[in-house]
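Might I ask for a little of your time on a matter of protein folding? What I wish to show you is a protein chain and, alongside it, a tokenised description of its three-dimensional fold. I should value your view on which stretches of the chain appear to form regular backbone elements. You will find the record immediately after this paragraph:
***
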Amino acid sequence: WKQSQGAIDPSRFPSQILCLTEQIQFTEEVENAIKKHRLQQLNDELVAKLENYTSIDSYSEETGSAETNILELKLKALILDIIHNIEIVNQLNQTQICSTSDWAWKKQLRFYMKPDNNCYIQMVDAEFQYTYEYQGNAPKLVHTPLTDKCYLTLTQAMKMGLGGNPYGPAGTGKTESVKALGGLFGRQVLVFNCDEGIDVKSMGRIFVGLVKCGAWGCFDEFNRLEEAVLSAVSMQIQAIQDALKNHRRFCELLGKQVDLDSNSGIFITMNPAGKGYGGRQKLPDNLKQLFRPVAMSRPDNELIAEVILYSEGFKNGNMLGRKLVALFNLSKELLTPQQHYDWGLRALKTVLKGCGSLLQQLKKSKREIDESHIVVQALRLNTMSKLTFADCTRFDALVRDIFPGVTFKDVEYIELSAALHEVFEEANLEIIPNQIKKALELFEQLRQRMGVVIVGPSGAGKSILWRMLRAALGKINKVVKQYTMNPKAMPRQQLLGHIDMDTREWSDGVLTNSARQVVREPHEVHSWIICDGDIDPEWIESLNSVLDDNRLLTMPSGERIQFGPNVNFVFETHDLSCASPATISRMGMIFLSDEDTDVNSLVKSWLRNQADECRSNLENWIGDYFEKSLNWVLKQNDFVVETSLVGTILNGLSHLHGCMDRGQFIISLIRGLGGNLDMKSRQE
């Protein structure tokens, strides 16, 4: 590596080795530069190296797509590392440091190759051994000041034999930071999603496994465990930490002596108790003092957006990233505050990923590229589907203000649109452009997110939406299997499975059973697990690690089901009033409202199913009376039972079957629409 001066061919080595050597070499170069006062030259060399990596055109070779994809991932990882390294050198330059023991350099994560040919990692005065656990090609995090603060706290905690506890609101990168630090140390990091189904013995079994193999356990949503479990778990954790602190080779767990690997660690991440997050407890004090807390509340969105756009291949990522974040902040302040809106980091990251994939499509088809165009396209693709009717126009006005002169152009799906039109005609349904658009939005959200929720009043066409999309995908040879359930129709244990307290035997629930079937499917078969029913924190929070980037279902028995990108969870519900921000930020949203309902199309499709002899009469009479009377009824708003718009229309039409003369029609209309009105309004 030294002889080649960084001009090494990235396709020859795995990403993990490339990044590690890059870090070891960087540490060495910085320490030499500090002694010789040549930090400025080092900075120029790094900038040149960054230029070199960003200019590698991964599209030039028309080899297998898998190889180019892997090369892209490697380059992205290297680019993110080098950008961070350049930042470090700039900081050192500004503080004008003169020795390698200055704080500005000591507080960085430093990698050394010791004479015993082992790699060691230092941060301030803590030293750790690199453990060469294969990491795969995991996408890297953008290094921000918050990440540094988090790493510093976690490494100091481990030096003292304690655990780390990043806490803060949803979507601020808590779990991802722990995973990223473990990746830098070459450790295996296992994420567990805690819920009330887990008892002390389950936790004990997980701990035994972790300390034996030297892995890190990251317990997500730790404060959702029950209080009795929390205090018992604190005893187990104390035993492990005590052994780690005193460098003992074994510890006492579940009444047995267990071998202990000194590289293991226990981390917990959680949302604060209260404030819209249901089912969370405050940690008991004896547990609090075993973990060093890190508050992660405000991620550096601007920096993240700029760096991700730059690593995706955008030339003026700085400006576009800043504009995107400004737009998100303005939307949060200026649009209506809906329960299902989320303008946080997860939503931003989905948009950034969308920008990247659109840019690659354009590069592959060798068309000319207008970067702000791409950003606006990705932004509207991911945001318009969740906005209410009134907010759509406001949002477009905001986009026009921030990206002046950019024309709006929707992404075109020629094949899929044609298939959708066919399917709607076959099902004898009216073709409404808006509904086709929603179906395409659903398709796009399913591609980008693991979980998508379709929200809207009953009769707004939620089920039709995914059924039609599924049929259309079948037409273009994409097989979709579906597993449908109503999660609220059964107790929690029947849905998610449970452990028999006496025999410790695990019995599957409806959802976990579907999950096992889904995982067995080959890659080209897509599966949708459809949960049709109210969304309730009691069960949805147990799917938190399924719905984020981990795609991992963890069960109280300690079993883990890892989903591939060919699985989606589709939720169908009429409101999200009970969902916590943790749930909402993880999901793609398709929002259907009464304003989107097209009354005329509804009436037309009802007329289609009427007998031929009275159809033309009905059509004329409906044109004369129906709309006026419907509007009057809606204006009075004096319903006995709350009904959605669609319900009211269908009530009105329900008595009109086979009306032969005008008088009969009017009487039937009054019966239909008046049936749900108060006595007073009925007289009028």
Notes: The mean pLDDT is 89. Residues 20 and 109 are 12 Å apart (CA to CA). DSSP finds 27 helices and 19 strands in the chain. The radius of gyration is 29 Å.
